[in-house]
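Q: Here's a chain of 440 amino acids. Please give me its 3D structure as tokens.
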Amino acid sequence: MSNTPPSVTSPPWGPNAKRAVTLSMVVLLYLFARRIDKNIWGTITVTLVLAYLLTPVVAIFERRLVWIKSFGQRRALSVVLTWLLVFGLMALFIGLIVPATVTQLRAFADDLPTLLEDTEADLRSVLSRPIKIGSQTYVPWDELEKAFTQQNGDSPESSLTATLQDWVLSLADSALGLVGGAVSFLFTLFFVLVMLFYLMRDGPVFVDYLVCSAPESYQGDVRRMLHELGLIWNAYLRGQLMLCLVIALATYCAALILGLPQPLLLGLLAGLLEFIPNLGPAISQVPALLFAFTTDSATIPGLEAGLPYAIVVSVTYMSIQQLEAMFLVPRILGRSLDLHPFVVLVSILIGADLAGVLGLILAAPMVATLRLFGRYLRGKLLDEEVFPALPAYTTQHHGFIFRLMRFFLNKRFPVQNDDGPDRLPAGPIEQAGSGRTGSF
């Protein structure tokens, strides 16, 4: 038998066959995606986001290691150096911030029973006033206590304070169940680190493959879409990180000035909730208002617990958010998302229902991404200009942190190629066009 394959002329597929195969593949991919657990999608998403955030740092190191001739070795060493930098910053954060945060959390846990009792006393004083409805007179506090008594089976511990304390203790008991998931977490973390290494090392290959896999006449569209996607996700993710740091620091300073308890805890909470558009800043006020209603100011004489103190705290929080919206958001985020607040809130609700906390955080950029693809499809279907009134891509602009890192790295590892010492790493379009990609 001959090892030479027979010569065969394969006939081309007709339009109907192409449509049927394409539709079948889309349906099969959708059914396959539906079978995958949400946790797996969450792990993949977190890995992609981390790789995207760290890729510019890898590009900085890669440009300082030009004396390594092999691209694979240079890229791998850049990834390792990036990991060492990230782990070093994490260790510094843990050493400086975590002990103080744990101390303030313990102080908050110790003060919690007193806070609950003070809250009950304030509620009692307000709700104990009789309300006359028609010929009947009601005391809201008495009705509230009757409801708690019926719920707890006429137990003598059925007061509001006891109920709230039991609820807090039940949360603490449920937190102990997290220990059982430690092994699963470490297993997932190992896979995330491995996937992250390959994504950061071979990200340029993925981008080149994505561009080259498109028909030649559409490769320009792919590069332009990659650029637009980069604007959306770069502005949101890296911009939100900057805003989180600024809001956390501003809230910490404001809490110190106002004399609120646990200012570091309030600052960290405000910074973390900044990732949730529109809704997060409002939620971050709740613990500060609780402190204002139940404790006196430690720094401002005469500012006692109660409504005036709470108004001062609320106005301070809103002032921080307004200053952020007027000065920081236009400079850091720009108009890359340009979503109406109603659309953002609806997307947050849908994202939280579909993907939990991760969907809550990434809802806004996902909607902006879907809008980008929708505009592209609409332009193609209606024979309109797909990218109207958009300037040609020239270079990539980076923020303060990126320029600061470049300054110190230029001092320590000067660039030794022909691009010049002030040359920034190439953006996604010029990288994809030149075959030297450093972002994806």
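Q: Can you summarize the key feature?
A: The CA atoms of residues 255 and 263 lie 5 Å apart.
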